[in-house]
Design brief:
Blueprint (H helix, E strand, L loop, with lengths): L3 H9 L6 H13 L4 H14 L3 H12 L14 E5 L7 H11 L4 E5 L9 H5 L11 H11 L1 E5 L6 H10 L8 H13 L5 E8 L8 H17 L3 E8 L10 H13 L6 H16 L6 H13 L2 H12 L6 H8 L5 E5 L5 E6 L1 H13 L13 E3 L7 E2 L6 E5 L2 H13 L1 E4 L9 E5 L1
Parallel strand pairs: 1-4, 2-3, 4-5
Antiparallel strand pairs: 5-12, 6-10, 7-9, 7-11, 8-10
Helix pairs in contact: 1-3, 2-4, 2-8, 4-9, 4-10, 5-12, 5-14, 9-10, 12-13, 16-17
Length: 436
C-alpha cells in the first residue's frame, strides 16, 4: 500500500499520482490512517500545485468509493442537479418534483446554509414536521415511491470528503477548484446518478464572482464528472442579484409554492429552473434535446403535476399531507415586517447581493457559528430587480424580523446594497455560458 508520505512528496514536486495512490489516500482519509497533518498537507499541495484532469477524477472517484454508493432498480433515469450557491436560489425545491413528474428519479442530497448563501435543507425545514435526515434505505424507498426526495448527506456517503472538507477551512484551501470539484462530485455521484446538471453561479452574490472563475469551475466539474462516467452539463448563471424576489427560509418556501401552484407564475426563478431541467432531461434520455426537455418541465409546472409530486414528497418525509393546499397557513411568518425605501429616484443599476445575504444571516436566517439555530421566519421579500425604477415612495424590498429593532438596525445596510442611476441599465443575462 502507498504511504501518505510518498504520496505527499510526489504532490509537492507536482508529479501525477497513480489511480491506486489517489484511491489509497482517499481511503486513508475515511478510515483515519491519514493524519490531520497529512490531510492538511495534501489539501495545501493540491491548492498550490493543482491536479491533472485524470488525477482530479481519481480523487473524486476515490472519495465517492470511500463510502456507500447507491444502487437503483427503477424504471427511469436517476438524475440530479447541483448549484454552487447564491442568494434567493431555491431552484432545487421546484426542479426535483418537476423532474419526477417527467418520469425521472431524483435522490437530491443537499446542504445547509453556508456563509451568505441559503441552504436548500434549511428552506425545506420551514415545513413543520418534515425530516431531511434519513437512512439510505428510506431515501431509496421514498425516491422509488414518489420520484424524488431532498435530504441531507448520510454519514456513509463519501466519508473521505467529510473529513477533508472539515480541514479545508482551517488550512485556507477552500478556493481550490480541484478540491471544490472533488468535494461536490464525490457526494453527488455516490448517489448512483445516470445524469447531472450543474448550476455554477457568477456575480456579486456568488462564491465565484468573476465570469472567468465561474467558467473554470464549471469546466472542471463537467470534465471530471464525464470522465467518471456521468453524463453532465453545466450552466453558468447570473448571481448579480437574488434569483428569487425573496431571501430567507420560509419566505423562499412561499415563493416556491407560488411557482408550483400558480400556472401563470413567471420569473427568472422559473426560467432558470426550466433551463436546468431541460438539460438534464435530455442527458437522462427522457427528452430528445434540451429544448424538448424545457417544454416537458413547463407542462409539468403549468398542469400542477410538479406541485402534486412535491406534496407527496413532503408527506413521505414527515410533513403534512395537505401542505400543498394549505401552505399559506402552514409556513411561519416573522412577527414584524418593514418596507425599505430609497432616498432618491433612479433605476436600480447594481445590487450587492452578498450584502443582502449577510443581512439575512444577521437577522437570524443563517448561521454565524456552526451551532447557531436558524430563525426560519426572517429575511427579505418583494425585492426589486436590476432595471426597475425606484423612488422614495416605492419600497426597494421588505424586511421581515423578530422585532422592530432588528429591522431598523439593518435598514441602512439594505439601502446601501442597492445602487441607483439616472440611466436605465441593461439587465444582466440570466445564463452566461453552457458547458458540456
Amino acid at each position: 500500500m502507498s504511504q501518505p508520505r510518498s504520496i505527499l512528496a510526489k504532490l509537492r514536486e507536482g508529479q501525477d499520482l497513480t489511480e491506486f495512490e489517489m484511491f489509497a489516500f482517499a481511503q486513508g482519509l475515511a478510515d483515519g490512517s491519514v493524519s490531520d497533518a497529512q490531510a492538511g498537507a495534501f489539501a495545501m499541495a493540491v491548492c498550490l500545485k493543482g491536479l491533472s484532469v485524470a488525477n482530479r477524477t481519481h480523487l473524486t472517484h476515490g472519495m465517492l468509493e470511500s463510502g456507500t454508493v447507491l444502487g437503483w432498480s427503477v424504471d427511469g433515469p436517476v438524475i440530479d442537479k447541483h448549484s454552487t450557491g447564491g442568494v434567493g436560489d431555491c431552484v432545487s425545491l421546484i426542479l426535483a418534483p418537476a423532474l419526477a413528474a417527467c418520469g425521472a428519479y431524483v435522490p437530491m442530497i443537499s446542504g445547509r446554509g453556508l456563509g451568505h448563501t441559503g441552504g436548500t435543507l434549511d428552506k425545506l425545514a420551514a415545513i413543520s414536521g418534515l425530516r431531511v435526515d434519513c437512512s439510505i434505505e428510506d431515501l431509496q424507498r421514498i425516491v422509488g415511491q414518489v420520484g424524488c426526495a431532498i435530504v441531507s448527506a448520510n454519514a456513509d456517503i463519501a466519508p473521505a470528503d467529510r473529513r477533508l472538507y472539515a480541514l479545508r477551512d482551517i488550512t485556507s484551501t477552500v478556493p481550490s477548484v480541484d478540491l471544490i470539484t472533488a468535494s461536490i462530485l464525490s457526494k453527488k455521484l455516490a448517489a448512483g446518478l445516470d445524469a447531472l446538471v450543474l448550476d455554477v453561479k457568477c456575480g456579486s452574490g456568488a462564491f465565484m464572482e468573476t465570469p472567468e472563475a465561474a467558467l473554470r469551475l464549471a469546466q472542471s466539474l463537467v470534465d471530471t464528472a464525464q470522465m467518471a462516467g456521468c453524463k453532465t452539463t453545466a450552466l453558468v448563471s447570473d448571481m448579480n442579484q437574488p434569483l428569487a424576489r425573496a431571501a430567507g427560509n420560509a419566505l423562499e418556501m412561499m415563493e416556491v409554492m407560488e411557482a408550483l401552484c400558480d400556472p401563470d407564475f413567471n420569473s427568472d426563478l422559473i426560467c432558470l429552473t426550466v433551463s436546468l431541467g431541460g438539460e438534464v432531461l435530455a442527458q437522462g434520455g427522457l427528452a430528445a434535446d434540451a429544448e424538448a426537455g424545457e417544454a416537458m418541465l413547463g407542462d409539468a409546472l403549468r398542469q400542477g403535476h410538479a406541485a402534486e409530486v412535491f406534496g407527496r414528497m413532503v408527506a413521505a418525509q414527515g410533513g403534512a399531507t395537505d401542505f400543498v393546499t394549505r401552505w399559506r397557513d402552514r409556513l411561519p411568518a416573522a412577527p414584524y415586517s418593514m418596507d425599505i425605501f430609497p432616498q432618491k429616484t433612479g433605476y436600480i443599476a447594481a445590487i450587492d447581493t452578498r450584502a443582502l445575504g449577510e443581512v439575512v444571516v444577521h437577522l437570524g436566517g443563517g448561521r454565524l457559528q456552526v451551532e447557531d439555530q436558524i430563525d426560519k421566519r426572517v429575511g427579505l421579500s418583494d425585492m426589486q430587480r436590476i432595471g426597475d425604477l425606484a423612488d422614495p415612495r416605492t419600497p426597494l424590498m421588505r424586511v421581515h424580523a423578530r422585532d422592530p429593532e432588528s429591522a431598523t438596525h439593518m435598514a441602512a445596510a439594505l439601502v446601501d446594497a442597492v445602487t441607483l442611476s439616472e440611466a436605465k441599465p441593461v439587465k444582466p443575462a440570466l445564463i452566461h455560458e453552457r458547458i458540456g
